[in-house]
Design a protein that fits this description.
Chain B: This is Anti-anti-sigma regulatory factor. By secondary structure, chain A is an alpha+beta fold. Chain A has 22 helices and 24 strands. The chains are: A alpha+beta, B alpha/beta.
Chain lengths: ~750, ~100
């Protein structure tokens, strides 16, 4: 029942907000003037509290809210005039509602008579009678069987967890009243399952779902044949049947379990789920039904109300004196109902993130200045700054965690995708997920959906073998796709592993040659061949299928991942399967970078791109005639990129043997040697969008502000490679006698697929 | 489709249902039932061999039963297998099957 208490918490939190909405609306109500928007807002707030309360079986609360709501409805349709007295009564009713919520939260019954006076006052207004009518007649705490309701479903107010507003309507239609009483200690679920006609065509079978429902308890299944056409008109593969299942189940069967049954057909059917709890022995109101429409992701079932709820502490001594009785009913009456969460506009959080970013910069700036202070002096200042730096880091992490979300929101979409892909390809697939609770920035999470969808589709379509083939080669019939997430060295690593046939390297290579992506005769390592699948326009599927093979697959994935500051790698073993590894930053707001200098300019290189930095010897440098310079580094030729040339920076060190070469790697594993003057040091930098503040620049991913207040550009290594290619195509550097000519046997182009 | 065995025995059409009544069999079954009622007033479907059944096929049998009731014909499901019986229970059609089946 842990889930239930979570939903209850949400209900109470949101009810507190709704009470505040209602109160502020009521305070603005002016006698004689009816602002229909205002009145509607109050009505909806009360209505939502009532509906949610119904879902949890808070019958007294629901009964009172209904009285309140009825009067608000009268105000809404102008049958009840707005008078000062009415407003007073409504404000008092709002306070009482707050009290009722507080009692419900404490799981205590309200003391008898808590609502009497207010209900009487409300009813006087409803009757059209002036307040000076008779003395307050005692109002029953229990209400009639139905709470008529003319409002559309307000479920949205309580999110997925809280629906239940059409309860009254269902009750009015007699669906609740007609049935036998719910056995003590059980819940009665009524599930209406109306599949769309083409449900069967997608491989779904109602018998499985209904059978699964039967397993949850004592089920009575009623099949509706009314839509079944005559024999001659029947379309064999369309479904005309629908079902109503009445399920008497233990309280541990919750709506989530029922929803799970229909998990894969959520879009292909209309499902309504209603629940009834047994009528409490002491309270007269009928069990309240909740209904969800359409298929909810999750919703809370009501608890089985305790037959004899314990009275609240406050009421023990003086049961006859309810807490809020008549009087002005101060605004603090429902102070007990405090919220433990707040909902904050995303913009506000982003502003906060931004400000923290500025603070990080300022702190770096101060740190830069104090570095010049004479050592041994200003010790306290230095210690204070040290603390400030630590607090700033903690503050930044706290702020980032506000934006962090578990990847489960993305992972939870995948089972359905896998099922659909499996059905479309006729393969048997089992999806295993792990690390769903791993948290990462909201933007990253949101942008993960498309790449993961693509990659899982690819794994199933290209990677996994059909069941027969798998059986033949001694694998289990069902292929397994494993989706995992974990934090690793300050980044989130997501892996998609399948136990299929692995990448068909000869086919990939011949396709790449056919498409002119690789020169014939080039010798590529296995890893390089595997990485060819990320090239634009590359697809090995012989036939375009619905799933993949349209040539818009893995290159788009790589681009998406790169745009998030991430990298993607593929590892494959023939016959054993493939593993795609995504590595993404936890946040898009800060970045670990290396500050480098070229001439008088400073740049930041993302740390994730850097392999090493070195000062080459003259013998390691070679010039490709009419092309670029390359450097021999660790037995491999690497293209040199002169940043000063690309960005036109004067006064830079131009001779690599006197400068430094920072060896960097792009997402696809290609390496470049960036010729820079100096490496100044590692620094965490706050990312500032260049597009938003200036415009996009080639070879530049974003900008940042350094400790000394200067703007530095954060380099985009893949972009630099592109730029250098264009730059080198106009290359006219005379051969340098100091550089050795490139050996003829260099298998150069293969290193770097164009 | 040949998988549904058709035999005309003394004026009644007898359809021998295959073991696998999956979605793909719904159309052949439906055609068999239509043809059966076209050829005779009495159609019986022998369901003893059914080992797998889809809702689509049960739906076709439902339509056949209703057709028989509305047009004063005779329809029966002979020796419904355990699988068919269970599927009908799942679909809330146990009373229907009981009404239309024959041992």
């Amino acid at each position: 029942m842990e889930d239930l208490s979570r939903f209850k918490q949400t209900y109470f939190d949101e009810s507190a907000e709704l009470l505040a909405v209602a109160e502020s609306g009521l305070l603005r109500l002016t006698p004689g003037e009816v602002d229909s928007d205002e009145v509607n807002a109050i009505f909806r707030a009360v209505h939502s509290i009532k509906g949610g309360g119904g879902a949890f079986g808070f019958t007294e609360l629901v009964a009172f809210a209904h009285e309140f709501e009825t009067v608000m409805d009268g105000v809404r349709n102008t049958s009840i005039p707005v008078t000062t007295e009415l407003v007073d009564t409504l404000i008092r009713a709002n306070d009482v509602l707050g009290q009722m919520l507080a009692y419900a939260r404490e799981e205590a019954a309200a003391p008898p008579g808590t609502t009497d006076d207010t209900v009487a006052a409300l009813r006087r207004h409803l009757a059209g009678g002036p307040a000076e009518a008779a003395a307050p007649e005692p109002a029953p705490t229990a209400q009639p069987a139905a709470y008529p309701d003319d409002e559309d479903d307000e479920a949205g107010i309580f999110g997925d967890a809280m629906v239940a507003i059409s309860a009254a309507r269902e009750a009015e239609e007699g669906t609740a009243g007609a049935a036998a009483p719910v056995p003590e200690g059980k819940l009665r679920w009524t599930i209406t399952f109306r599949p769309k006609p083409d449900l069967l065509l997608s491989g779904n079978e109602p018998t499985f779902m209904l059978r699964a429902l039967r397993r949850l308890g004592d089920a009575t299944i009623d099949c509706d044949l009314r839509s079944l056409p005559p024999l001659q008109a029947l379309e064999a593969e369309l479904l005309y049947l629908s079902w109503t299942v009445t399920l008497i189940a233990d309280p541990d069967v919750d709506q989530e379990k029922i929803n799970d049954v229909f998990e894969f057909v959520a879009d292909e059917c209309d499902i309504r789920i209603a629940v009834e709890a047994p009528v409490p022995a002491v309270a007269a109101p009928p069990a309240v039904q909740t209904s969800t429409d359409p298929v909810p992701v999750s919703a809370a079932p009501p608890p089985v109300p305790a037959a004899a709820a314990k009275p609240p502490e406050a009421a023990k001594g003086e049961p006859a004196k309810p807490r809020a009785n008549g009087g002005g009913g101060g605004g603090g009456e429902h102070a007990g109902l405090t919220s433990h969460t707040i909902r904050v506009d995303l913009d506000k959080i982003d502003r906060l993130v931004n400000m923290v970013g500025e603070m990080v910069i300022t702190q770096a700036m101060i740190a830069e200045h104090v570095r010049d202070l004479p050592p041994g002096e200003f010790q306290e200042l230095l210690e204070g700054l040290e603390q400030l730096a630590q607090h700033t880091r903690e503050l930044r992490e706290s702020v980032m965690s506000i934006r962090a979300q578990p990847v489960s929101s993305v992972f939870s979409r995948m089972p359905r995708l896998v099922r659909e892909c499996a059905a479309a390809t006729g393969k048997e697939v089992q999806l295993v997920t792990s690390g769903e609770t791993t948290e990462v920035d909201k933007t990253v999470v949101e942008n993960l959906v498309d790449p993961l969808t693509h990659m899982i589709r690819n794994s199933i379509d290209h990677g996994l073998e059909g069941p027969e083939e798998r059986e033949r080669i001694g694998k289990p019939r069902a292929g397994t796709v494993h989706l995992s997430a974990q934090h690793r060295s300050g980044r989130i690593v997501i892996e998609i592993t399948d136990d299929g046939r692995g990448i068909n390297r000869p086919k990939v290579l011949s396709k790449a040659i056919e498409k002119g992506l690789v020169q014939p005769g080039a010798s590529l390592s296995d890893e390089e061949i595997d990485n060819l699948i990320f090239l634009p326009g590359f697809s090995t599927a012989d036939q375009v299928s619905n799933l993949s093979g349209r040539g818009v697959g893995m290159d788009v994935v790589r681009r998406n991942i790169s745009s998030l500051g991430g990298r993607i790698g593929v590892y494959s073993a023939p016959g054993e399967g493939s593993r795609f590894v995504l590595s993404l930053p936890l946040t898009l707001a800060v970045l670990d970078g290396m500050v480098i200098s070229v001439g008088e300019e400073r740049f930041v290189l993302p740390l994730t791109n850097i392999v090493e930095s070195l000062r080459p010897k003259a013998a390691d440098l070679h010039g490709l005639v009419g092309k670029c310079d390359v450097m021999m580094a660790r037995g491999e030729y690497v293209r040199l990129v002169y940043l000063h040339q690309l960005f036109g920076i004067p006064k830079a060190v131009t001779d690599p043997t006197r400068a430094l070469v920072v060896l960097v790697e792009t997402e696809d594993g290609a390496r470049l040697g960036l010729v820079v003057d100096e490496v100044l040091g590692q620094q965490q930098v706050v990312i500032k969008s260049l597009e938003a503040n200036f415009r996009r620049l080639d070879g530049v991913a974003a900008a940042t502000i350094l400790g000394d207040g200067r703007v530095a550009l954060i380099l985009d290594v893949a972009g630099l490679r592109e730029m250098s290619r264009h730059h080198d195509s106009g290359y006219s550097r005379p051969p340098d006698p100091g550089q050795a000519a490139l050996p003829a046997a260099l298998p150069s182009p293969a290193l770097e697929p164009v | 489709m040949t998988l549904i065995k058709w035999s005309d025995e003394g004026g009644q059409v007898r359809l021998g249902l295959p073991s696998d009544l999956d979605l793909a069999m719904a159309q052949p079954l439906l055609e068999g039932l239509r043809a059966g009622f076209g050829a005779s007033d009495t159609v019986v479907a022998d369901a003893a061999a059914v080992e797998r059944v889809s809702t689509a096929c049960i739906q076709a049998l439902l339509a056949a039963a209703r057709h028989a009731a509305e047009h004063n014909r005779t329809f029966a499901i002979l020796q419904p297998s355990e699988v068919l019986t269970e599927a009908c229970e799942d679909l809330g059609l146990a009373p229907w099957l009981k009404q239309w089946s024959r041992a």
